[in-house]
Design brief:
GO terms for molecular function: 3'-5' exonuclease activity; nucleic acid binding. With 240 residues, the chain is an alpha/beta fold. 48% of the residues lie in helices and 15% in strands. A 6-stranded mixed sheet has the order 4-3-2-1-5-6, with helices on both faces. The chain is globular.
Length: 240
């Protein structure tokens, strides 16, 4: 039987943030869902974080988390980011793959949050960002399996296409993490010749696929928009 990235279990990860600027925006909620090799949920950890800044109305409209709510109910930023780092570092140490959708965004935001909160010199940070993390990214996988795709490739659209339940819970960190995990499992079953490999091999392959995908996207966007300054950064799983 072929080895699979989920043969020893896996952890699904998602964050909700104050926006989509990786270097500036803040994490306000996060979820880690721990799965067995048979895809049974065995443990869940969630965080609600007070970022210390106003949550823009546009972000609240997406994830439902207001400034007042995170200020009253959330933990301090430094404490929350440290706990997320520690949990992901444990995954890295035990070579437990972390599954996400567009996970390079979450990992890049976490990188800058760690730096902002003085955690970039910690052992946990080093264990994650020095090559220890094995990231399984459903978006990169889908782009590889389906070079041409009619319709959008966001999580909601792909969940609908693959019959993954998400519904009104979209943009909730726990619901999105669960959906990302289920989508990646279904993509593996759909295209085993690409994805039915061990986590380390799939992680390395995704880095190469992503660079090509961003080069192709950059070429398309520059041509379609007539703007040669458009840049799609090829770094994966984190943009520093």
């Amino acid at each position: 039987m072929a080895r699979t990235w989920f043969e020893n279990g896996y952890v699904a990860f998602d964050t909700e943030t104050t926006g989509v600027q990786e270097k500036e925006d803040r994490i306000i909620s996060a979820s880690l869902l721990y799965y067995s090799p048979t895809h049974a949920l065995v443990k869940r950890r969630t965080w609600l974080i007070n970022p210390g800044i106003e949550v823009p109305a546009a972000a609240t409209a997406v994830n439902g988390l207001s400034t007042e709510y995170v200020r009253d109910m959330g933990m301090p930023t430094g404490e929350g980011i440290a706990q997320i780092l520690a949990a992901l570092a444990q995954c890295a140490r035990y070579r437990m793959p972390v599954v996400a959708f567009n996970g390079s965004f979450d990992m890049t935001v976490l990188l800058h949050e760690s730096r902002r909160n003085g955690l970039a010199l910690s052992t946990d940070f080093a264990d994650i960002y020095s090559g220890g993390l094995r990231l399984i990214d459903g978006l990169t996988m889908h782009r590889k399996a389906h070079l041409k795709w009619k319709g959008r490739r966001n999580l909601g659209a792909l969940c609908e296409a693959y019959n993954v339940e998400l519904g009104e819970a979209a943009h909730n960190a726990t619901a999105d993490a669960r959906a990302a995990a289920e989508l990646s499992v279904k993509l593996t079953a759909e295209t085993p010749e690409l994805f039915e490999v061990d986590a380390s091999s799939l992680h390395v392959a995704q880095r190469q696929w992503y660079a090509v995908q961003m080069e192709d996207l950059q070429t398309y966007l520059r041509a379609s928009r007539g703007d040669e300054t458009i840049t799609c950064h090829p770094e994966w799983p984190v943009r520093r």
